Fold this protein.
Amino acid sequence: MDQVDKVIEQWRVARPDLDVTTMGPIGRLSRATKHMHTVAEQTFASHGLNMAGFDVLSALRRSGPPYSLSAGDLLASMMITSGTMTNRIDQLEKSGLVLRTADPDDARKAIVCLTTEGLERIEQAIVDHVVTQRELLTGLTAREIVQLDGLLRKLTKSLGV
């Protein structure tokens, strides 16, 4: 019996008229997510990054050579406000991990690209991030991971996220 089971049992006693079966998966997803974020942040911190910086660097890395995207493309891929994106880029630029230049086709737009140091940092960080993710799921078999992924895909699709 875990903490979520205890909460559910308390609600079953306090309000036997309610069907609280959905509290189990929601409570466990919430607890797991918080823990996974904490562990991921520790991995990122070991590379001098936080989750926000990692997200930007990994979007640039995934874009392929020359590892650059317009600020607008970065913004669209992360679903954050333009002010938040500007702040993230500013911090990464101060750290020497990205360089912002004017778009040669439209000087009003900025192009953000990985510096050599930024590319090296994300190459190291992604390896450790994948190891961390694998360690977080060691309690599941390979088959269970595939099943969980399918169920979570179905859930996120039904939620529109």
